[in-house]
Specification:
With 92 residues, this protein is of the alpha/beta class. It contains 3 helices and 5 strands; from the N terminus they run E-H-E-E-H-E-H-E. Helix 1 links the parallel strand 1 and strand 2. The longest helix is centred in the last third of the chain and has 10 residues. It is globular.
């Protein structure tokens, strides 16, 4: 079962990491999009985990061009679609 984890603050990552598996998905929203510039962030994640960041939140913080290739910037519409496809959604 794939879970979509929605992370809204960088400091909540430590709690979320314990639950993430390669089949899950992670969406960075609000201030958590700042993690895209953290050099250790992606190294902590399970191999194969799909990582997304909300386009509007990246843009609001001037991070859209800093987003690494491993993190896909998505629209609100795409975020809703990911939520609907997931077996469950967990917000942090």
């Amino acid at each position: 079962m794939a879970t979509l984890y929605q992370l809204n603050a960088p400091y909540k990552l430590a709690c979320c990491l314990k639950l993430l598996t390669a089949t899950d998905r992670l969406v960075l929203i609000e201030s958590a999009v700042a993690l895209v510039v953290d050099t250790h962030f992606l190294k902590q994640l399970p191999v194969g985990l799909k990582v997304f960041a909300l386009n509007d939140d990246l843009q609001a913080r001037g991070l859209l061009n800093a987003c690494p290739a491993a993190v896909q910037a998505i629209s609100d519409t795409q975020w809703v679609a990911e939520s609907l496809e997931a077996d469950r959604v967990c917000s942090w």
